[in-house]
Amino acid sequence: MNMKTLIINYKAYKEAFTNGLDIAKYSDELAKTSDVSIIVSPPFTLLRDIAKISKTIAQGVNEVDPGAFTGHVTWFELKQAGVAGTLLNHSENRCTSSKNGPVDYVALKMAVDKCAASGMGFFVCVQNLEEAREVLKIKPTGIAYEPPELIGGNVSVSNSKPEIVKEFCTLVKQNSESLALIGAGVKGKEDAEKSIELGSDGLLVASGILKTDDYKSVINDLVKGLSK
Ligand code: G3P
Q: Are the C-beta atoms of residues 128 and 165 closer than 8 Å to each other?
């Protein structure tokens, strides 16, 4: 059985700054004693500290090299901060040239190429199968199906859209070596087990962990579900 992956996306939640270090420490300890790879994705200002503790990826990167680009985040900064890679094209930070426009695959590929050239991984989010087909062409480390309407809610992607999840996982397996990840509304062990039954390689989770004081139990449950 291949190793499953759990990505914990801290988003811009305030809790990232109160519980983020502890979540990273706990995740790192658990990853060492389980067969699940746990990766945390904190806000940019926490990257350097958290990357010292656990496997860490950024929440995005701009497609530019170091230079006169005020307010941009470059692959070089990420590398300097010691992170292993980045999320890209998350629904809350889409790679588009206009608001609500289609994905700008040219810009996405530029960002991806810079990450790959610097030895970093890249996990690209998609909202549907059509985007998944396009994104697979750029050979991401992982591709994550997250239906936007379920993000932050209490109904998980695996329960709400099992057929699409199955189709997504099959598409990824048949056409690439990328990890097939899913996310949105994931809260516990049953969601994790179901995602594995449907063929996924793991999960992206945010509110289910960041928005509870009992985050250690939730991480533990998710790892148990993914380990089955
Ligand atoms: O990247 C993970 C995320 O978008 C899912 O969010 O809060 O539904 O777990 P959430």
A: no
pLDDT digits (tens, 9 = 90+) for 162-203: 999 999 999 999 999 999 999 999 999 999 999 999 999 999
72 is catalytic: no
Domains within the chain, CATH numbers bracketed? 4-226 (3.20.20.70)
Q: What spacing in Å lies between the alpha carbon of 161 and ligand 1's midpoint?
A: 15
Q: Is 120 in the pocket of ligand 1 (CB under 6 A)?
A: no
Q: Which of 29, 130, 131, 146 is catalytic?
A: 146
Contacts of 28 (CB under 8 A, 6+ apart): 38, 53, 54, 55
* Predicted confidence (pLDDT) per residue in 63-118, tens digit: 999 999 999 999 999 999 999 999 999 999 999 988 889 999 999 999 999 999 99
Judge if pTM exceeds 0.85.
yes
Answer for the pair 118, 79: CB distance below 8 angstroms, yes or no: yes
